[in-house]
## 1
Amino acid sequence: MDFSLSPEQKMLAETVKTFVKQRSPVERFRKLRAEQRPWDPEMWAHMGELGWLSVPFSEDAGGFGGGMIEVAIILEGLGKALAPEPYLASVVLAGSAVAWAGNAAQHERWLAPMMEGTHALALAQAERASRYDAARPSTTAVRDGSGWRLSGEKIFVLGGAQAHAFVVSASTPDGLGLFVVDPDGPGVSRQVLRTIDGHGAARLRLDGASVDDDRRLGEPGEPAAAVLDRVLDRGAAGACAEGLGVAQAMLDMTVQHLKDRKQFGVPIGSFQVLQHRAVDMFVEVQLLRSMSVLASIRADEPEVELRQRSVSAAKAKLGTAGRLVSQQAIQLHGGIGITDEHDIGLYFKRMVGLDTALGDETWHVQRLSNLPGFAGA
Amino acid sequence: MDFSLSPEQKMLAETVKTFVKQRSPVERFRKLRAEQRPWDPEMWAHMGELGWLSVPFSEDAGGFGGGMIEVAIILEGLGKALAPEPYLASVVLAGSAVAWAGNAAQHERWLAPMMEGTHALALAQAERASRYDAARPSTTAVRDGSGWRLSGEKIFVLGGAQAHAFVVSASTPDGLGLFVVDPDGPGVSRQVLRTIDGHGAARLRLDGASVDDDRRLGEPGEPAAAVLDRVLDRGAAGACAEGLGVAQAMLDMTVQHLKDRKQFGVPIGSFQVLQHRAVDMFVEVQLLRSMSVLASIRADEPEVELRQRSVSAAKAKLGTAGRLVSQQAIQLHGGIGITDEHDIGLYFKRMVGLDTALGDETWHVQRLSNLPGFAGA
Amino acid sequence: MDLSFSAEDQAFAQEVRAFLAEALPSDIRAKAEIDAPFDPEETMRWHRILFDKGWVAPGWPERFGGPGLSATQRFILTEELELAGTPPLSPFGLKMVGPAIMQFGTPEQQQRFLPKILSGEEVWCQGYSEPEAGSDLASLRCRADDDGDHLVINGQKTWTTYAQYADWIFCLVRTNANVKQQAGITFLLIDMKSPGVEARPMLTIGEQPAFCDTFFEDVRVPKANVVGPIDGGWTVAKALLGHERTLLAMVGSSQRLLRRVKRIAAETFESGRSLLEHPGWRTEIARMEIELEALQMANYRALAGAQLGKAPGAESSILKLRGTEINQQLYELAMKVMGLDALSWYNEAGVVPDMEQGVAPQFCYARATSIFGGSNEIQRNIIAKWILGLPSGK
Amino acid sequence: MDLSFSAEDQAFAQEVRAFLAEALPSDIRAKAEIDAPFDPEETMRWHRILFDKGWVAPGWPERFGGPGLSATQRFILTEELELAGTPPLSPFGLKMVGPAIMQFGTPEQQQRFLPKILSGEEVWCQGYSEPEAGSDLASLRCRADDDGDHLVINGQKTWTTYAQYADWIFCLVRTNANVKQQAGITFLLIDMKSPGVEARPMLTIGEQPAFCDTFFEDVRVPKANVVGPIDGGWTVAKALLGHERTLLAMVGSSQRLLRRVKRIAAETFESGRSLLEHPGWRTEIARMEIELEALQMANYRALAGAQLGKAPGAESSILKLRGTEINQQLYELAMKVMGLDALSWYNEAGVVPDMEQGVAPQFCYARATSIFGGSNEIQRNIIAKWILGLPSGK
């Protein structure tokens, strides 16, 4: 049992820290948000140069063969600074889907430009009627000559505002299929969304959109449903890591505020009630950190039930810890905490986004409680 | 809208207060508990003399025609002092069942000696398989000549240790029936239970116990099920009132302890964290008081859904408020709080008993949420 | 004890509902039905309608233009307005400076200011908090220098809600720096059009422009605008705090919010079943309903006490505390029920169900309720000291 | 990062399990399976079996008779023993006074006391708290007067767990009343058979005779029994506190309790369906399982740090806090699941399912875990000050 980082991982953590400090402080996000820009493509390209966008993909697919530990290091750093580039959406979710379900030609076509940082991808799986359950999309793909016609609506595509291509889940006659859809193609309409946390997202409507056969990832009959399930677990683990960064930043800002802010002639951090509140935040951040580690280690675990159990436990913990930490962060900041001009509110709202996306606390608790081993354990 | 007590009610409250202080301080309960005696029959007789045991019964049935407001005044006072006489069990539960379902002869036979304080009754409805749901007992009553044979097991009969007669619910060919059973009769066995709160209870086993027809309350075909439902709502409302007394006493003792106990050279009540904890207890007691009033007013409400909604809301609140108040009472008392010799632990355990009996928080929340008006409201 | 209203009071409730059915403008009603936020024009339009009816200030004595309602009728009126979702009127004139002027003002001040508060001709805001004086209000520094007939004001106020729309501001200012903090404070009425006053709107975390930083630079204010004695403002301010407790319970607003949660749950599906039909969600909603019912009963008890002329007692001190907590929890539940739709933010119609567009920003701004109006920590300090009698100190 | 154990460590875990399968006496195993409380005879019998195996003091250095296990192996051993539900050994000798004597004692003290702690020949208890000195331990008053070669003890200790079965007690006593509180305290070993010592057992709210009031009247103790310098006992006591944090996380014990909750839920029926099949109960249990999993991960992280020789860090400070909270919540859940059966109290067999007889008393006594060993309020004070660096004061 070992929780220490390898020398390479330590170096990566150092690079991320420096990068965020020098190139992507919170002010950068604030400025983009004011301009209603979901990201900075140059920053994305820069992340590509640093190799970050290739981290979790196998060397066969042109990646670095890293794992979720490395991804978590990057996401925690991005979370701390609210960097809005769609690392979670494009690399972890859509990228993993292409990497795992796609063939070599598909890797070359969609994964390669993403890893270089010239393109971004997004995974379109959420639908209104199915809530967080991605297994049975009501979006359909029907055969049309040598290709497919896709119809349906995806309500909230993470990173969908800036994506150059969408990986879309749809029900086909041979089970769940994953298709790469061009947002500018015929029958496809993208509506960019404004979001609570200012991160990019979109709705995607498919009105009999025509899709060539080589845009279907993998071969018919392959279990794309299992791939999607794995992809979403990677995504949930990634959300935990990014959420950990967000929570840690809120804790640090709040403790600093308690030391700096004076009322009644003393720092407010000398009031016992506020001290204990800060301790409760600290406890939850520690537990969330432990669970984020667990999720990273288990996200690529081959034994499915063990993977699902660990990831759902961690994502559920993100919900409870995130809620306590972000609510108390606002409360302990007092009046300035509810102004748009103070950063703490931006973190509060980002936590809402991460808690909700990819299955909220309730959904993951239910998933865990329905695993076969739950009653037997 | 008026929450003030009538002059008669104020006088009753005053009498109860004086009685409890002079005749039934907590030490009396402690002594009975040490002797493993569930009650003091003389005290019961004295309550009969004071007329308390006749309060909620109609004048036709020989009672005073009072209502649940008066009952709540008495129960709150008994709760404050942990008086173990089975007022809730014998008067509110079993007494109401006999009063409402029984005929004049049955009133004379069982209600009259109970009101005089020479006898106590108990309602045997809880069974292991049905948890808190009393509607479909697995105890059966089958015809046997002009009488009945009862078979089944009641797992936790409140006040069953000291009862002279049991009102037993059983499924009959014509619906739910209520029978008055002699605990010493053939085929009947009573096992006195020790309980967490030291109040009297028993299991009752019926092995084809023979019961004459005049021991069936009311006439076949009458809706005894509806009577039982009303009786149990009265009981739940009564538990709220007694629980309010318990909670109020714990709050008062705890606030006093915070003022008296010194550590680090100051009263511990000067520590802000403990102050706020006491405030949280205070808030919950205030809310419980409000809900106990609601339950008393609505317990005899003819509109069934309104009655059930109010009583269930109040009983559920007893669960949440009781838990917070009693746990914090122990915590704020510190080490002495977990000794058997300090009274606070007796209150803690009584609250567990009242919270669990007659449907716990979960059960009442579910009942409320399943009322037809819930989704429509 | 009795939970019902008298026949007379029931008739009054009927009258209020009939009035609402008729007098509430249809555009405002449409917004009320979907819980959309109201803009100041709509709020003031509704203010004038209530003024015309005589109901704009239910709590005011008749000699100052109040309607002469009983405590129960005032309660009924407030509850019916809240349940109908009518625009909440600005409390700064009607509930705060108005009563202060009645209690502490000169006859001239009463004549000058009260009628225009009632009619809505003059809109007020509040200048209490400063960047360095929040929970510790008495440490305020906004300075008022004596200059003969005038005071000259320099300093800054913050969280001045809707100052950008206000005609007047009532302020606590420091007139004496050489005495103990509370003793050197004066309660002052300032015309927002005075030279040197500037209100800079700020956004909340819900991105509503709900309050301002307000700056004063050599602002000259006639001494005739001082309410109570110079250096005696703390007494005036403290008296005001007592007026608001039941206001802050937000029972009616939370009841509408609970209905809204149920409506959203009925329209949100999972595995082919609405969330409102799902036992897990039902019990979660039911638990909130029970807490809200308990709050409402506590509110009733406070009202019944007021009816009998009692000073607000123990039961009313908890109203702000629990009222704000429950309101926040209900918004949280609304967000959970909405799921991914909750992440949508001021999007054009059709992105999420139209009626629920406002949930996310309102959820965010609801975090303010436990901070403003005396933070919930301050409320607990007050209860610990004044009701439980615990020793102050550590 | 890696969550798995090395092959060597896995083999060790296998060895522990094999030992347990063979060496745990069947009567103790039967009690362990139903989570019945153990009596002192059973605990000491198991102590001696572990002593014979060499595993009774996994943390002791080899030169004092410890087994020379790695940090991971110590952890595995502890976890396996907890999971098997073996009797928890008294910590007062093995985890508290033993390490204190190793660190601060003279070679003579080490030779005199340590072997008999290991073998179980001498049983210890702890005399720290007094009726007036609980959270404020330094204010203790039990007096030790100098009388040449001896100290003469007068005073009272309380919460002396299992003092009625102990041969020795280690005490903090006041040797100097004229200096600052912490400076006048001495750490002293007292033979319980000394004239003038009396231990009076008290019952807990679970009605277990778990601790005593212990009285000292003119008890003569040789100065050779002072550990560390006279007046230097506070340093010894503080060093002891560090030893226990992971102990207090109670992970293994809570895991068994969770299994027990599930077992009860599987055997408890409502409307013909076991509670464990009921989605509402499943999610409630699952939420506890997730919190426990998070605690266990935090515990692993603390262990992994210890393996690398790091001082206990931030992750370990939370263990006592969350460990006790979770344990209490699990007992609460067990009670809820049991329903009316939970109200039964030390009844003869058959009244409630035999295996669950102990739940109610244990639920009651579990309230002690957040009070003893440094109350959770004190733990939060410590984290606020020493980890978050918040200013002390108000």
## 2
Amino acid sequence: MSARLVFLGRLADLSGPLVVAPGPLAAVALPEGVLGPRVRLALNGVLVDAVGLVLADGDELAFLPPVSGG
Amino acid sequence: MSARLVFLGRLADLSGPLVVAPGPLAAVALPEGVLGPRVRLALNGVLVDAVGLVLADGDELAFLPPVSGG
Amino acid sequence: MLADVRLLEEAFDPGAALGSFSALPDAGGIVSFLGQVRGGGGDAGSVEAGSVEALELQHYAPLTLPAMQALAERALSRWVLGGLLVWHRVGVMTPGQPIVLVAAAARHRRDAFEAVDYIMDHLKSDSWFWKRELRDGQWHWIEPRDQDVADHARWGD
Amino acid sequence: MLADVRLLEEAFDPGAALGSFSALPDAGGIVSFLGQVRGGGGDAGSVEAGSVEALELQHYAPLTLPAMQALAERALSRWVLGGLLVWHRVGVMTPGQPIVLVAAAARHRRDAFEAVDYIMDHLKSDSWFWKRELRDGQWHWIEPRDQDVADHARWGD
């Protein structure tokens, strides 16, 4: 029983992928700096809100910083 | 001693190139339809006005209908 | 920087031309326009007089290439470009063959888009080409379209 | 008409891609944009921290390709196109290598210009790519630029 957290872009410098227990995201000890006003979340490929999020077994939650310009 | 008249685009359907005597353009018997409000003239590659034009030996006068769109 | 401006009597390969052009050192972004002879009957929604069997573009050598070169110079002075290519066919072409290829390289995408758009809007009206189409065995001269005048007017020059 | 949308892990040949694309039957006019990795130091007027040795584009598979496909569908519904190609590299690239190729074929030039311009303005912000550059042996993440937000806002969507 586990869920997977992945960190994209510059957030990947802060943490590699993590395996965590299912349950409320609020109960997970996240690496510092991976949540912020401009970081969006995708649960199994669908954009979601962090508030009230509960991870189920097999879920993949991606942390997405702003995309690059240029 | 001669000048050359050339007809471009649809005007070429009215006449092939002509060799004429030097002198005022007004004195040349032009094929019907090659002069008109939308036809422009180029003397030796330079756009000119028909009014008062005099052809010198070796000149090439081109009759240019409107260019095509599309 | 000089523009690569050509009047071509023979068919050319636009993919190869763009391949060479994109090897320019300062070509971060490249915009191109390729115009080809349309085949007839390809557009199911339109009713046309007949399918185009061939297209002929006539030019007048003393005017046409100098006008293309002057147009390229105006584009180079108006936008910051790392390269500019303006190739135009003359003579008889068949459906699917390239007629015109314009490409601009620039550090900033917007410069390249506007330069190619500008050159295409002006090529038709400022350069000296006369076009006729072979349909049902007969040649028909193509007259200027109102849309071309409107495209040209967008630029205020 | 389906768009040809690809995320590419390996280098591609833009000239060959455009050559194939221009063989589409309804491709009277084709506009393309090619974005390549810029070499450093090529722009005499700018003072930059160092020359770019490599560029890496990261993506997130569950989001990136679907976002590109959705963008292509929006362009197809907004303009009358005879063909649409959207190819984007991911992974590590070196200066001069192609990053993105967008091409649109249309009977009317304006449709093709606008569709390519629209896709380029939206690819950067709507799709999910993260970019970093290797300069002086160190990787630097590229943050969004204000210009990209302004380009996107032009379209009102």
